[in-house]
Amino acid sequence: MEITVEQYKDAINNSLSAKQIDILDLLYELPHSSATAKELAQIISPFNPNPVVASGQIRKIGKAFSEYLSFIPEMYFDGRKKAPAYFSLIGPYDSENGWRMNENLKRAIGFLTHSSKNKTYLVVWNPKRWTWDNIEESVEQVDLTGKCSFRWSCGNTKSIKPGERIFLVKVGTEPKGIIGAGFATTTSFPGRHWSGENKEAYYIDIDFEVLLNPEKELILTLDILKMGKLAEQSWTPQASGISIRPELVDELEALWFDFLTTQKIRHNPFIPFENGTQKTYIEGTPNQVTLTKYERNPFTRKKCIEHYGYSCVVCGFNFEKTYGQIGKDFIHVHHLQQVATVGKTYEVDPIKDLRPVCPNCHSIIHKRKTAFRIDELKEFMKFTSFLK
Questions:
Q1: Is it the case that residue 131 has pLDDT exceeding 80?
Q2: CA distance 167 to 252
């Protein structure tokens, strides 16, 4: 019996840690997706390579697949005794070429880590199991500081990484639907189960950048989420941490953005000012929180990049051309508008108001209190080049 691409995708998302996924990704990137224990050790830990450790990592990954999929590999003699050949679930092994990743696993890795490098996950709040007594304080904190940080259960999902997108869905009682969104700030880590039971659960820390109180305002309800292609996703899971299907993420982001910018939300995250006062982050550093939301918002970011591409509009740097596959689809997005010029009724135009820039140029743009214009930076670069 052969493990299918879909089975591998499911097992990668739900049985592996972020580190284990990184190891598979490194093996995937090598020529022919093949490496000896020595070669893999050099890549995993270049300053302290250990082939035995690398072999152990491959075995642990194969064992995780085996346990999750209830798939028992054939036995082999490991030098001392017969044991399950867990490594074979990664691919066949020979002493000359090492592991050669099997084709179905390659397809699964290619789909999961390259078509959607930053995945999107759904975490759950069920008031029947936990009452969020201070939700209103949390909503106000988001409004005042730009974010509210929480440690949240992600079920048994071990693969969530910092920076990946998180949506919060309310289930159990009406109204049901999405009430928040933000980004993971940690990898998944184990801890005691939130219920107090003597068992383990996994958690992540989340910065919620949008949070709605379902008792006081509209939320993105299930009846809307179950329309069109989005109906293919389960929006009322029993546990947190399920991944949202990659082919649905763009549609969800567009729907969420439209909901936030068209409905009467009390603390609308895309209105820059309230009573003329600029918002700041918790640390107290003056920052254009609202404009940063536009830069980070997956919907507006995608529209900008679709138009301008992944090269920096200031210096022309392109991460994929320089670093290869590992740099694919990486670029910052900069908001051209200044706080002083943005009014209460301001609506972003991703093509008119946003530009792709590399991290270096982005840092220089914001080096002074009033951000440098893109044309100013280009002139600085021309002048510096002339002096050389």
A1: yes
A2: 10
